[in-house]
Amino acid sequence: MKTIEQKGMYQKFPRSGKDTRVTHYCAGCGHGIVNKLVAECCAEMGLQDRTIFVDPVGCGVFTYYYWDAAHISAAHGRASAAATGVCRARPDAVTIAYQGDGDLGAIGFNNAFQAASRGEKFGCIFINNSLYGMTGGQMAPTTLEGEKTTTTPFGRDPALTGHPLHVCEVFSQLQAPVYIARVSVADTKRILQCKAAIKRLFEIQRDRKGYALLEILAPCPTNFGMNPLKAAEFCKNEMEAEFPLGVFRDTEKTGVGEAAIPKPQAPSAILAVKPVPQFATCAELFGVPDGVDAPPAENDPSVPERRFKFAGYGGQGILSLGICVAEAARLQRRHTLWFPSYGPEQRGGSASCSVVVSGTPIGSPTVEHPDVLVCMNQPSYERFVGDVKKGGIVIVDASVPIMKQPPEGVKLHQVPAIKMAEDFGVPKAANTMMLAALRAFKATGLDDEHLETALCASFKKKPQLIEKNRDLLHRAEAALKQP
Amino acid sequence: MSEEGTGVVAHPEIEEDSCKGCGRCVAACPRKCLELKVTLNKMGIKPVGYTGTGCIGCGMCFYNCPEPYAIKVVKP
Amino acid sequence: MTKFVKSNEAVVMGALYAGCDLYFGYPITPASEIAHGAAKWFPMLGRTFVQAECETASVNMMFGAAGAGKLCMTATSGPGFSLMQEGISYLAGAELPAVIVDVNRAGPGLGNVYPEQSDYTPAVKGGGHGNYQTFTLAPASAQEMCDFTIKAFQMAAKWRTPAVVFADGLQGQMMETVTLPDAELSRPDFSDWAAQGEPKTRQNLIKSIFLDAAAQEVFNDHLQRKYEDMAADAMAETYLAADADLVIVAFGIASRIARTTAETLRRKGMKAGVFRPITLNPFPRERLAAAAKGRKIMTIELDAGQFADDVRLNLAKSGLGAEAANVMMIHRMGGQVVTVDDAVKAAKMILGK
Q: Which of A326, A339, C76, C103 is most solvent-facing, going by the fewest CB within 10 Å?
């Protein structure tokens, strides 16, 4: 004796605290028919242990009461985003999102579309019943022209609300999906086709082939305002006239339906994806010193705090000069901090950064009154020179006309950094010239050795420049030290 | 329809209290051997019933039914 | 092993040491370096980086990944944090651990990319719908951006709650020396509740829905008890506060301004100290009360006074009504930072000097 009976569902549905064997769906609801098929396919394929269903908000919200598998009940519209998280977190699982046409077609359309575009490895079952069911029969993006809903009481007028959204057709423009199909549960023949399609959806996920979308046309007798048989007829006649059934894409199996946008024949070599270097542990990844290692800062109250401001024009290397001084401070086991001006102005115009070096932990990171100001151009000099602390040092490029004198008790050095760099044939090394000046004038309170190591470390990505800059540093410093 | 020797006759088993009376199975039955009853179930709905003869065990009623446990089809 | 790194990068390092397996994020200044670091380093350790299509997607991807039993995170700034609020409510409602780093910028609206602490209320009180809270930590240095990100994962896992690392644009962009952790944390086992796609987790269900009002109430009571219990993990630090006439209360970057302000005042012969909440939720109420009792109190903050109000509330709840009534505040908004000079002036006024 054989039976045809429900598989893959719980025996009882403890909804609202009651053990019922009846679903919450209305009489003749398409969801109910689909729910049975999904559970049956999952069970027949032996995938219940591996499957994680991502449930929607909408009439499908209670599938977790029915399908005997793990569930994650997502926010309205976000099942595809949540399913992205699930399939990325559990690549060995079979991830299935279940969404309605408000959920997927409206509020969550971009999440679903982008997940499809990324080729996320989950299957998305999309129930299209042409309206919002649970909230009371409002218009959905899929509502037919002229169809009456509670928010199109005179029938959907395309002049006001546009035309029905064809989800499968839109998704078919994408490269990544491996399966896109539209089926229906309006009658026996269609239900059996639907079962085969759901099976295919599961197969694709079982075999981790890629993204799959299955749109299912489903009757909603309650909100159609029709008896279940009339609703099924409406689904078959009116809905299919707008939304033709068929397999839009099944590249894995039949090669049906390549994406509408062809790939370029020979992709450019500069666009190649590079292999990602692999590390087993964080210590391996971060433990390889990409600069020079040093122990943590030590507390030495005898070392006074020194605050620096570096300013100039974007591209003059002012930010890296600041980093270089801060890095030297780290190597000397000082507490140190670097902070840039940032925001839209970082892409052109003036650039500045602050550095603090101290023998004790640093409080406020902002440099309101620098001990040392290094300026590469006139606007930055004029902006900051008045803030320099008594006893402080200002180093300014010799090209800057001194229209404004520093405060009393502040020493001004004019250094031809830009010209020296040009004379040395390396115009980009003006900041190295300024580092030489900082050394020559003993402006940092840091050891020359650490400043030099930090300079060399700053060229770790361009090792051919290390010796060149070291040489420039020495030559510039010698020149500056000449009386 | 019974298969020789088994003694089992194809028939639907209907869990009346799980039926919402939508009639999809009645319309789908190729042998027209289902009908809505005149009596009410616990929900106050007229559930489907088997006329008693004609079932071939095709399962179409089961697949058209939106309820998991309203209909089960037994076949030889 | 020390490294001189941007605070935003230190967040990623901390996350990786904490065992975070997935990063979901959408770029936004001044938090983007966190996404840059994650995009580079997560795949190098065989972990997952996904650039989401929007912050709504990021937070819901976290819902999925956390529901599937993995540690995951995102990072954003004000506008993105606003977009995430619904999702954070869902995370809290489903009791899922996840870490959200909010590098505050100035608002409202588009505002600008400079530092504020104006996301205080949504980050500390639960900015979405429903009676939920997050575990919220406020780092003040690159080292703490690393360490507190790790702590945030530990607390998120321990309390099954979303945790927020509450930073600001100034901190995010700042470079400091970071000592890397000694060892990676082992992954927590969530198989008793997570949907992992394995036989033993087949009956697990992640949800935030309780259609039955009585069941929802029971669940909400459970959540509120959990939030009360979280107080055991409240953290704070004091600096020069023991004999202080004036206690400066500040968190995050403002606590460093407070520190320099207190030092400056001390040099001028005025007894000032600092009380710094490290966890903004749970708020270290008892420690604040102990440090503030009978003292003058001034907050330094980069918002309109959301934090000062919370300080008043916590003092009042500790029975320190008089202190609460006299909490003074110095603050800046719009991306401007309170200067030590201004803070010192304000403090002297409060001290009557």
A: A339
| Helix residue ranges, H only, A134-251 | 158-161, 167-171, 188-206, 221-224, 228-234, 240-242
pLDDT at residue B1 greater than cutoff 60: no
Q: A67: closest CA among A51, A81, A83, A80?
A: A51
Dihedral class, residue A315 (left if φ above 0, else alpha if ψ from -120 to 50, else beta) = left
The answer on pLDDT for A16 being more than 80 is no
User: Does the structure show a pLDDT above 60 at A346?
Assistant: no
For residue A261, the model assigns a pLDDT of: 61
B contact set with A (CB within 8 A): 6, 8, 15, 17-18, 20-24, 27-28, 43, 45, 57, 59-60, 62-69, 72-76
Of C100, C57, B28, C218, which Cα lies nearest the Cα of A78?
C57
- How far does C300 lie from chain A, in Å, by closest CA? 12
CA-nearest residue to A294 within chain C is C2
3-state secondary structure of C253: helix
Mean pLDDT of chain C: 97
Q: What span, in angstroms and rounded, lies between the C-alpha atoms of C222 and C338?
A: 41
For residues C34 and A428, give the distance between their C-alpha atoms in angstroms, rounded to a whole number: 29
Q: Do chains A and C touch (3 or more CB pairs under 8 A)?
A: yes
Asked if the Cβ–Cβ distance from A28 to B45 is below 8 Å, we say: no
Chains with at least 3 CB pairs less than 8 angstroms from chain B: A
How close A154 gets to chain B, by Cα (Å)? 28
CA C214 to chain centre: 32
Q: Are C175 and A16 in contact (CB < 8 Å)?
A: no
Compute the nearest-CA separation of B30 from chain A (Å): 10
Among C88, C103, C114, C175, most A C-beta atoms within 10 A, so best to mutate, is C175
What's the CATH class of domain C2-232? alpha beta
Angle at which helix C340-351 crosses helix C253-267, to 10 degrees, equals: 60
Q: Say yes or no for a CB contact (<8 Å) between C22 and A85.
A: yes
- Partner-chain contact B66 A36, CB within 8 Å: yes
ipTM summary value? 0.96
Residue B32: strand, helix, or coil: coil
- As given in the structure block, the two tokens for residue C196 are 């992992």
Burial A123-133 (b: 16+ CB within 10 A, else e): bbbbbbbbbbb
Question: For testing the chain A interface, which of C21, C45, C341, C345 should be mutated: the one with the most A CBs within 10 Å?
Answer: C45
Domain ranges, residue A337: 299-481
Q: What is the pLDDT of residue A252?
A: 75
Beta strands A131-132 and C272-277 are unpaired
- C213 inside 8 A of chain A by CB: no
Q: When comparing pLDDT for A342 and C322, which is higher?
A: C322
The structure tokens 């449930």 sit at A55
**Residue C259: C-alpha distances to residues A40, C141, C226, C236, C343 (Å):** 66, 13, 33, 14, 11
Whether residue B58 is contained in a domain is answered as yes
From the list C68, C177, C253, which residue is nearest A89 (CB)?
A: C68
What is the DSSP code (8-state) at residue A149? Answer: B
A438: CATH: 3.40.920.10
Using an 8 Å Cβ cutoff, are A174 and A112 in contact?
Answer: no
B47: CATH: 3.30.70.20
Q: Tokens at residue C153, please?
A: 């994962």
